[in-house]
Write a structure and sequence with these properties.
The protein has no helices and eleven strands. The N and C termini lie far apart (about 40 Å). The strands form two sheets. Strands 2, 4, 5, 6, 9, 10 and 11 form a seven-stranded mixed sheet that branches. Strands 1-3-8-7 form a four-stranded antiparallel sheet, with no helix packed on it. With about 120 residues, the protein is mainly β.
């Protein structure tokens, strides 16, 4: 069984910064891609940033230049550094990982962490 636990959300003023973390645990053989998604009220869940095992990254246009995704393979952890936050970044942020166990390869999701950008 694989579990992802996200942390680091909170309330921040516009222009501020937050760092999200998501750690995986369980019977993991390998982790392929890692990513962050977000969902604001009334909206569909959208991709924020993604990083694959080779280190290549891609970002939503709305966060390019402000957010940085990184991973620590030894800690099985993905990070999202969010700078210059805007009110429109307010959402629940979910981490996702493509994980291989000894029996299958599946996508797993974290529980979500709330990010609120407001003055």
């Amino acid at each position: 069984q694989v579990q992802l636990v996200a942390s680091g959300g909170g309330l921040v003023q516009p222009g501020g910064s937050l760092r999200l973390s998501c750690a995986a645990s369980g019977s993991i053989f390998s982790i392929y891609h890692m990513g962050w998604y977000r969902q604001a009220p009334g909206n569909q869940r959208e991709l924020v940033a993604r990083i694959i095992s080779g280190g290549s990254t891609n970002y939503a246009d709305s966060v390019k230049g402000r957010f940085t995704i990184s991973r620590d393979n030894a800690k099985r952890t993905v990070y999202l550094q969010m700078n210059s936050l805007k009110p429109e970044d307010t959402a629940v942020y979910y981490c996702q990982m493509g994980v291989a166990t000894t029996t299958q390869i599946s996508d797993y999701w974290g529980q979500g962490t709330q990010v609120t950008v407001s003055s």
